[in-house]
TrEMBL record:
This is PH-response regulator protein palA/rim20. It holds the Pfam family BRO1. Residues 768-783 have a biased composition (Polar residues). The gene is RIM20. Residues 4-397 form the BRO1 domain. Residues 745-758, 836-847 have a biased composition (Low complexity). Residues 741-815, 833-854 are annotated as: Disordered. Coiled coil: none annotated. GO terms for cellular component: endosome.
Length: 854
C-alpha cells in the first residue's frame, strides 16, 4: 500500500424499504398487478443490500455496485425519480460526516452508488503493490477507472438529478477528486519510467504533468466546501514535489547535453520548489515530507557539484529563470468510464452478464397515455377527415334527390297501385328498430347526460362565485392596500377561462339539441306512418290511374331508373367503405409497436423517463397508412358529380316526356315524403349519437373543472384566513398602542399636577410622587391603569416623553464612539457587520501559496 497518496472513502447508508415504495407506485399508477413482480421486488432489495455492504477494497465489490447501478438506470425509464423513498447517505469527506443527507430521488441513490464505485477503484489503486511495475500498471488502471466514474457522475447523473447534490458531491468537489485520481495514476506511470531507467527528458515530462494534475485538484478543492484543508495541503505539497522532480530530471538532461548554465538554473528552481513544498510540512504526512527532504538532499548535492564544475571548468553563464523554457508535458492518463458503468444497460437481459432487467414486463404509464393519444388522433382522422366527408357527400346527394322529387316521381309512374318494394323494406326497418321509441329514449338519455354535466359545472361556478364574494367582502373591509393578494379573477384566471370555454361548449350543444328536437317534431308525423303497418302506409299513399306509357316516357323512365340505380349502388358502396374504415380503425392496435418503441427508448436513454411526446414519429408512421383512404375522397366526389349530372339530365328528359301529365302528382308527393322521412330518421339517429358522445366526453372535462376549483378555492380560503388573522393581529396591536398612549398621557398630566402641588405645599417630590401613585385618578381607573408607574424623572433621570409620544426602545450602541463604525462613517444596514480590521483574502488565496508551474 502506498503511504504517500490519498484514497477516497466510502459513503455510508442504511437499509430502506425500496420494494414497498415500488409496489405502491405500481398499484396506484399502472394497470398491472404488483403481484406479477414479486420476484423483481425481492431482487431489487437484495441488490441494494449487496451494494451498500461494499465498504472494503475488494474486487468483488465492483460487480455488486455496477449491477445495482445498471438496474437503477433502467428503473429511471419505468418510474419517476421521486419514487417515495427517502434515501439516507452520510458524507464521505468534509467536516460533517455524522449527519445523513436524505433525498426522495432515485438519481441521488444512483449518484451515491457510483460515488462508492469510484471510491472502491480509488482504494484498490492505493492498496495495489506500488513496488513492482505490474502493480503500478494495475494501480494506474484503477485510478483511471475511478476518474472515469467521477466524470460519468458529473456529466450524466448530476445534470438530471433535479435536486441540489450534497456538498461533498457537487461539481467542484468531484472535479477535485477526479484530478486527484488522475494525478496519482500519472504518478504511477512516472514511477514506471523511473524503475525502467528511461531518459531524464521523458521522466521530466511525466513529472511535470503529475504536478499539473495535483494543482488542478488543489484549485478545485479550494472552491469546495468539503475537501479538507489537509487534503489541499497534501495536493499542493505533491504539486511542488513533482515540479521540483521535473526540474531536477531536466537538469540531468541538460548535463548530458553540456548545457551547464541551464543545469544550474534548473537545480536552483528545483530547490525553490522543494522549499515551497516543505512549507506544507505541518499538515502533510511524514512520508510526503520524507520524499521532499530526500529530493532536496539529492538536488543540493548535484547543485554543489554543478556550481563547482562550472566555476572551475565550464565557466558558463547561469540561465536566468525568466529565460528557462517551460517543460513539455507527456500525459498518460484520461478519465475512462468502465464499460460496466457506461454500457450497464446493455449488460442487462436474459443471458447477459448482469442478469435480467427488473420490471421489464412493466408497461410504462406513458405507453398507456401514448396509446390513448394515438387512438384519439386515429379516430379524429377517420371520423372527421374521411368518414365525415363521405357522409357529407351522401347528404348532398340526398338533397339533390329530394330537390328533384326522386325517387317518388318515378315510383308513382312505375307502380300506380300499392306500395313500392323499396318503401316497404324501409318501413320494415323502422318497425324492427321501434323508431319513435328509440329516438325518444335517446333524447331522454342525452338530456340526463346534459343535466348531469350542467349540474357539475354549476357546482364549480358556485364555488368560484362564493370565493369571489368572500374576497370582495374582505377587500372592502380591510382596504385594497392591506388586502394585498390578487383578486379572484387574476389569481384564478385559468379557472375563469376554463369556465368560459365550458359555457361556450354548453351553449353550442344546447343550440344543437334544439335543432335536433325541432327536426324530430317536424318529422314525427311521417315517422309514425313509416313505423306503422302496411295498411297505414297504403292509406297515406293514394293510388293513381294507369298512365299510358308512350315510347318516349318509357325510354325516359328507363334512363332515369338506370341513374337512380347508380345512385343506390354508390350509396351502398360508400356505406360499405365507411364500415370498412371503422373496422380498420378498430383493428389498428398500436400496443405492440408502442412496447417495442418503449423498449428501444429504455435501452438508448436509460436515465430519461419515457414521455408520450417521444412516440410522435411512430404516430406519424402509423397514421400515414390512412392517407390512401383520404386520397379516395377526391375520386368519390368526382364520381358523384358525374352521376348527379347524368341524373339531372335524365330527370329533365323524364319531366319533358311527361309534360302536362298531373295524374300521379298526389301519389308522387306522398311517396317522396315517406322517402324523405326515412332519410331524416337516419339523420336524427346520427345526431343523437353524436350528442350522447359529446356529453359523455364533456363529463370528464366538467368534473376536472369542479375538482380543480375545489382545490384552488380551498387554498385561497386558507390563504385568506391566514391573512385575515395577521391583519386582525395588527388591528389589536394598534388598539393596544392607542390605549398605551392614553395611559402615558394621563400619567404625564397626573405627575405634572403632583409636582406643582408638592412644591407649593413644601413637601418633598418623592413623597408626593408616592402619594400620587397610591391614589389613581378616576380617569386612570377608566383607562384601566391598575399598577403604579414610577416617576424616575424626579430623581435625576431623563424626563418622560411628551404627551402622545412613545418612548424610544432602540438599544444603546456598544463600543461605538460617536456613532461611527471602524474607521469613520455612520453605519447603515446595507453595510453588513464586519469583525476585525484585517482585509479579507483575495479569491483563490485562502491562505495558500501561489502554485508554481515547472
Amino acid at each position: 500500500m502506498a503511504a504517500n497518496v490519498l484514497e477516497i472513502p466510502f459513503r455510508r447508508t442504511h437499509s430502506v424499504d425500496l420494494s414497498s415504495a415500488i409496489k405502491q407506485y405500481i398499484s396506484s399508477k399502472y394497470d398491472q398487478s404488483p403481484g406479477m413482480f414479486t420476484d423483481d421486488l425481492r431482487e431489487i432489495d437484495r441488490l441494494r443490500s449487496d451494494a451498500i455492504s461494499v465498504q472494503e477494497p475488494h474486487t468483488s465489490g465492483i460487480r455488486k455496485l455496477a449491477v445495482y447501478a445498471a438496474q437503477l438506470r433502467y428503473l429511471g425509464g419505468k418510474f419517476p425519480i421521486d419514487i417515495g423513498v427517502d434515501f439516507p447517505w452520510y458524507p464521505a469527506i468534509g467536516y460533517d460526516k455524522d449527519k445523513p443527507v436524505l433525498q426522495n430521488n432515485l438519481r441521488f441513490e444512483l449518484a451515491n452508488i457510483l460515488f462508492n464505485l469510484a471510491a472502491l477503484y480509488s482504494q484498490l489503486s492505493v492498496r495495489t503493490n506500488w513496488t513492482t511495475i505490474d502493480g503500478l500498471k494495475q494501480a494506474a488502471e484503477y485510478g483511471i477507472a475511478a476518474a472515469g466514474v467521477l466524470a460519468f457522475i458529473r456529466k450524466e447523473i448530476l445534470p438530471d438529478m433535479r435536486s441540489t447534490p450534497p456538498e461533498d458531491m457537487d461539481d467542484v468537489t468531484l472535479d477535485s477528486l477526479q484530478n486527484l485520481c488522475l494525478a496519482q495514476a500519472q504518478e504511477c506511470f512516472w514511477q514506471i519510467t523511473v524503475k525502467k531507467n528511461m531518459s531524464d527528458g521523458t521522466v521530466a515530462k511525466l513529472a511535470a504533468k503529475v504536478s499539473d494534475y495535483y494543482i488542478l485538484a488543489a484549485d478545485a478543492g479550494r472552491q469546495s466546501r468539503s475537501v479538507s484543508s489537509e487534503w489541499i495541503h497534501h495536493m499542493q505539497a505533491k504539486h511542488h514535489h513533482f515540479a521540483a522532480a521535473a526540474q531536477y530530471r531536466q537538469s540531468r538532461y541538460c548535463l548530458q547535453n553540456k548545457q551547464y548554465g541551464e543545469e544550474i538554473a534548473r537545480l536552483k528552481d528545483s530547490i525553490a520548489c522543494v522549499n515551497e513544498g516543505l512549507q506544507e510540512a505541518r499538515w502533510i504526512s511524514a512520508t510526503v515530507v520524507g520524499d521532499l527532504n530526500g529530493l532536496k538532499t539529492r538536488v543540493q548535492e548535484d547543485l554543489k557539484r554543478a556550481e563547482k564544475d562550472n566555476d572551475v571548468i565550464y565557466l558558463h553563464a547561469v540561465t536566468p529563470k525568466s529565460e528557462l523554457r517551460i517543460l513539455d508535458r507527456t500525459n498518460m492518463v484520461a478519465p475512462k468510464t468502465p464499460a460496466d458503468v457506461a454500457d450497464g444497460i446493455s449488460l442487462l437481459g436474459e443471458g447477459q452478464p448482469f442478469g435480467k432487467a427488473l420490471f421489464d414486463k412493466l408497461v410504462p404509464y406513458a405507453v398507456h397515455q401514448a396509446a390513448s393519444i394515438y387512438e384519439d388522433r386515429r379516430d379524429r382522422l377517420l371520423n372527421q377527415s374521411i368518414i365525415a366527408d363521405l357522409e357529407a357527400m351522401t347528404a348532398r346527394l340526398r338533397e339533390v334527390l329530394q330537390s328533384l322529387d326522386l325517387p317518388g316521381s318515378l315510383q308513382a309512374l312505375e307502380k300506380p297501385l300499392g306500395l313500392p318494394g323499396s318503401l316497404v323494406s324501409k318501413a320494415e326497418e323502422l318497425r324492427q328498430q321501434d323508431a319513435l321509441y328509440r329516438i325518444k329514449r335517446s333524447m331522454e338519455d342525452t338530456t340526463k347526460l346534459k343535466t348531469n354535466d350542467l349540474t357539475i359545472y354549476q357546482e364549480g361556478m358556485s364555488l368560484l362565485d362564493a370565493e369571489k364574494v368572500e374576497d370582495d367582502r374582505a377587500r372592502a373591509r380591510y382596504g385594497t392596500e392591506r388586502w394585498s393578494r390578487q383578486p379572484s379573477e387574476i389569481a384564478l384566471g385559468k379557472l375563469y377561462q376554463s369556465s368560459k370555454d365550458l359555457q361556450t361548449y354548453l351553449n353550442s350543444a344546447a343550440s344543437s339539441d334544439n335543432l335536433v328536437e325541432a327536426k324530430f317534431r317536424e318529422n314525427e308525423h311521417i315517422l309514425k306512418i313509416l313505423s306503422g303497418t302496411n295498411r297505414d302506409l297504403e292509406r297515406f299513399v293514394p293510388s293513381s290511374r294507369q298512365v299510358e306509357m308512350t315510347p318516349a316516357i318509357d325510354q325516359a323512365a328507363s334512363r332515369l331508373r338506370t341513374c337512380l340505380n347508380e345512385v343506390s349502388r354508390l350509396e351502398t358502396r360508400r356505406k360499405n367503405r365507411i364500415n370498412a374504415l371503422r373496422e380498420k380503425g378498430k383493428a389498428d392496435d398500436i400496443g405492440p409497436a408502442l412496447l417495442a418503441e418503449a423498449a428501444r427508448l429504455e435501452r438508448e436513454y436509460p436515465m430519461q423517463k419515457i414521455d408520450p411526446s417521444q412516440f410522435e414519429a411512430l404516430f406519424d408512421r402509423r397514421l400515414q397508412t390512412y392517407e390512401s383512404d383520404r386520397d379516395i375522397l377526391a375520386a368519390e366526389q368526382e364520381e358523384q358529380d358525374q352521376i348527379v349530372a347524368r341524373l339531372r339530365e335524365a330527370n329533365k328528359a323524364f319531366l319533358d316526356a311527361r309534360r302536362g301529365d298531373t295524374s300521379t302528382r298526389d301519389r308522387q308527393k306522398a311517396l317522396q315524403a315517406l322517402d324523405t322521412g326515412y332519410a331524416k330518421y337516419k339523420e336524427l339517429i346520427s345526431n343523437l349519437e353524436t350528442g350522447r358522445k359529446f356529453y359523455n366526453d364533456l363529463a370528464g372535462h366538467v368534473t376536472r373543472f369542479r375538482e380543480n376549483v375545489k382545490a384552488q378555492v380551498n387554498e385561497r380560503r386558507v390563504e385568506a384566513s391566514q391573512l385575515e388573522g395577521e391583519l386582525s393581529g395588527q388591528d389589536m396591536g394598534r388598539l393596544n398602542l392607542e390605549e398605551t398612549r392614553r395611559e402615558l398621557t394621563s400619567q404625564s398630566q397626573t405627575q405634572s399636577q403632583s409636582h406643582s402641588q408638592g412644591q407649593g405645599q413644601g413637601q418633598g417630590p418623592q413623597t408626593r410622587s408616592i402619594k400620587n401613585q397610591t391614589a389613581p385618578t378616576p380617569q386612570q381607573r377608566q383607562d384601566g391603569i391598575t399598577a403604579p408607574v414610577p416617576t424616575r424623572s424626579l430623581l435625576g433621570h431623563p424626563p418622560p416623553p411628551a404627551a402622545g409620544v412613545m418612548p424610544s426602545t432602540s438599544p444603546v450602541p456598544v463600543n461605538v464612539a460617536g456613532g461611527t463604525i471602524a474607521g469613520g462613517g455612520v453605519w447603515r444596514p446595507d453595510m453588513g457587520i464586519r469583525f476585525g480590521g484585517a482585509p479579507a483574502n483575495q479569491p483563490g488565496q485562502a491562505g495558500y501559496p501561489v502554485p508554481r508551474r515547472p
